[in-house]
Specification:
Number of strands: 10
Order of helices and strands: EEEEEEHEEHHEE
Strand content: 35-45%
Amino acid sequence: GLIVESARTVPEAPPAADLTMVTSDGGLHVGALTNFEFAAPPATPMPAGVFAYADPLATYAATWSDQAPISGGADLRLDFTFNRGPAAYDEWTGVGIGCASTDVSSSSTVVVWLAADVERTVRVRLSSSAYTTAFGGVPSEFGVDVIVGPVPRAVAIDWVDFSYPPWATAEWSAGQGFPGTEAEARAIVLQSFEGLVFSPLATVDAVGELSAPSETGFLRVDNIYFR
């Protein structure tokens, strides 16, 4: 039979004035704009809800930054230096911003403004407790790769574009994995969404070795919203 569904309201892009309006330092705002425009600088270098990481040979720092921000007076910046490791693809870093567990299934898209020191691939991933509670502790790798360069741009990513890569599946051990399809697993992740993670990739050669002995770069993040 036919089912009558109420129309879903899809928020449009925020007005330009909203990109610079003052917002609270409260982590990722799922129901509002996250633009890092605070009335006063955070008490610590990293805003609330932000975390960063890197491989053991790298140096890195995530900060609330007023250095040529994407818009307004500040954005979130990750500075990093990779140092060539002994194995292939063993240089990595990332910055994330979290929120309380929230069901974001009613939206279809996340939009974020990104810029980097040079053109490089950035992997955007979904953070969720479901990787542990529902899938036995599998790697948190539902994500999508986007190309980012020195000119800031708005990246709009539909939830359906987030996928789980085969190389992460290969890391599963006994008792780990999805009980159903990838689409069903992604739905569970979105129902317990806890933030976004942004990982700028190192510049490597054809066999995965860092192209130079060391590589210094940065990633800037701003104006995150859902629609």
